[in-house]
Design a protein that fits this description.
Blueprint: H1 2-13, H2 20-48, H3 63-89, H4 102-129, H5 139-160, H6 162-168, H7 202-210, H8 220-236, H9 270-273, H10 276-279, E1 286-289, E2 294-297, H11 299-304, E3 308-315, E4 321-330, H12 331-337, E5 345-349, E6 357-360, H13 362-365, E7 371-376, E8 379-380, E9 390-392, E10 405-410
Parallel strand pairs: 1-10
Antiparallel strand pairs: 1-2, 3-4, 4-7, 5-6, 5-10, 7-8, 7-9
Length: 411
């Protein structure tokens, strides 16, 4: 009875668009997208938690803007693709018997893990772009762990389905001379309408035989074009927070490209960090500690030093980025004051909480464009942007561009 009912449900869900060819086309786009997100996400993670001995590129200065922008844009585009893929294959859930072997059980378990991890990964990633965290776990560590789970499950899934993928990878190898789709081999998951349901007898069989075959109201091409348009639409309406050309269409993104004090968005204001009093205190000093001597520099002392101008982007893990003009003292000039060139630095903020300090590796500390910034876009730093002084460096995440500086210490 259960098998008959499931066959009836599956036949009712059948559609010419639910074909292995459709599943393979969507699957290869999903696979490519997840690999792009995995690579760019791994790069961002290692920038924040580098392995011992790792060194990073400081050129091009927009490197992190490119990688993290791609991470968020591609991740957003994957949402319609994942939904379309599941629409294509979910009638297979009603196969009877649901498991025919141990290998089949493991395959279904791996697919369940892959789908669940992908949904959680994309949903939490989207929420992160809005800085909305309605869950008890830490986002970054969970996001990182899920990425590995997805890549592992995806590799196993591709290995299991490789014969099907190879057969339906190219249209030319899956159609006859007239362009019609070739029959689906046993075990490939025929998702098209079936005139008869296998292994079903009695009243259910008679109902199935009398039921009309679903018309081709939605073709494979329609599904693929519609999915492509949906992905393009979500990208066009959200990517304007990092791509100036799409800024006029930026209606669904959480922030505008030039919105904020001095034309720059702010993730954490001085009020939220509770630093206004300290930031505006005339007695503020920046302490630079070397291995043998230290100096305490006032804002006037810093302004009296040689100033460097740098056009650098600020790019955040949430996906937004924008170009800005910075002016301040090169970190390597401060290193010269305490005799500590070619060293690694610990940069501390007087704000509390996560990312109140960051490690500035040698390659960044020695870069001439790594600054203790005092001005932004031709004006004195706004307090929300880190007044009296903040760190800015090429090719690094915005979360590591520490604001409201207290000290620089040689590691």
């Amino acid at each position: 009875m259960i098998g008959s009912t499931l066959s009836l449900v599956r036949t009712a869900l059948a559609s010419p668009a639910r074909h292995p060819r459709t599943a393979v086309v969507l699957g290869r786009l999903l696979g490519l997208g997840f690999l792009i997100c995995f690579g760019t996400g791994l790069f961002s993670h290692l920038l924040q938690d580098p392995l011992p001995g790792m060194a990073f590129l400081t050129r091009p200065v927009w490197l992190y803007r490119l990688t993290q922008g791609a991470h968020v844009i591609v991740g957003t585009a994957l949402i319609p693709l994942l939904l379309a893929k599941l629409w294509t294959v979910y009638p297979l859930l009603f196969a009877w018997p649901p498991v025919r072997s141990v290998a089949g059980l493991l395959e279904r378990a791996m697919i369940a893990l892959l789908v669940a991890a992908a949904f959680v990964e994309l949903a939490t990633g989207l929420a992160n772009t809005f800085q909305w965290y309605p869950w008890p776990f830490r986002f970054r560590e969970t996001h990182f762990a899920l990425a590995w789970a997805i890549v592992g499950a995806l590799a196993i899934h591709i290995g299991v389905k490789l014969p099907v993928i190879v057969r339906w990878w190219r249209r030319s190898g899956s159609t006859d001379a007239d362009g019609a789709l070739l029959p689906v081999a046993d075990g490939e998951g025929d998702l098209r309408p079936e005139p008869r349901a296998k292994g079903v007898t009695g009243a259910i069989q008679r109902r199935l035989e009398r039921a009309p075959v679903p018309p081709a109201a939605v073709s494979r091409r329609t599904v693929l074009i519609g999915t492509g348009l949906a992905s393009a639409a979500v990208v066009a309406t959200t990517a304007g927070e990092t791509l100036p050309a799409l800024a006029p269409l930026n209606v669904l993104a959480p922030r505008a490209l030039r919105y904020g004090p001095q034309g720059l968005p702010v993730n954490r204001t001085a009020a939220e960090a509770r630093v206004q009093r300290t930031a505006l205190d005339p007695a503020w000093r920046l302490v630079v500690r070397g291995p043998e001597r230290s100096v305490a520099l006032s804002l006037d002392d810093l302004r009296a030093m040689p100033q460097t101008d740098a056009g650098l982007p600020i790019a955040c893990v949430e996906g937004w980025s924008t170009q800005a003009a910075w002016r301040g003292v090169a970190v390597r000039d401060l290193a010269d004051l305490v005799g500590a060139r070619d060293r690694e630095w610990l940069v501390r903020s007087f704000a509390a909480g996560a990312y109140s300090s960051t490690v500035l590796q040698r390659e960044f500390a020695e870069d001439p464009l790594t600054l203790i910034a005092l001005e932004l876009n031709g004006e004195v730093l706004h307090v929300d942007h880190g007044y009296p002084a903040r760190l800015i460096s090429p090719a690094r995440p915005g979360v590591l561009q520490t604001k409201w500086l207290r000290s620089l210490e040689v590691r």
